[in-house]
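Journal club side-thread
Mid-discussion, someone asked how the predicted structure for our own chain would compare to the paper's figures. Pasting it here so we can look after the session.
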Amino acid sequence: MASKELDWDACARWIRSRQKEGQRVVFTNGCFDLLHAGHIHLLEEANRLGDCLIVGVNSDESVQRLKGSGRPITPLQDRLRILEALTVVDVLVVFPSVAMPPERLEPSLLDTPHALLQKLRPDVLVKGGDYLPEDVVGREFAGEVQIVPLLDGRSTSRIIRQLDLVINGGNAGFD
């Protein structure tokens, strides 16, 4: 377990203690497969919106369901280790929870932080500019939703395409 990683219950307790102290708790989430400048921008902006930042990280199985069989490129424990090194990140939490079997979740919400947000109830929920506030999953469990503009041309998929061009001449088939 990464030193900043908490399970769902410990994370909820951590949040409540910060909120009791009057701190503003911010939450954002993602796969963070190949960390790039767009991720750093999102995390820094999210951090500026409050006193502490919790980052939800998709499990390896979740990333594979969302992104395809070749993903994640970076396994969960490595993604957590990289994110814990960032000073803007206070706490890491993985979803979906191993304590909550996939069959207990609404299929459309399986790879989202919906159940996690229902438990955590942060003050601010932050997503990237590819979302509209009304489309953010779990928005009803946060005090407010903030959208951070994306950095043009920064994405994990773009990095993978560039690497594919260099290594294989463009035959990997990633979107």
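Post-session note: The radius of gyration is 16 Å.
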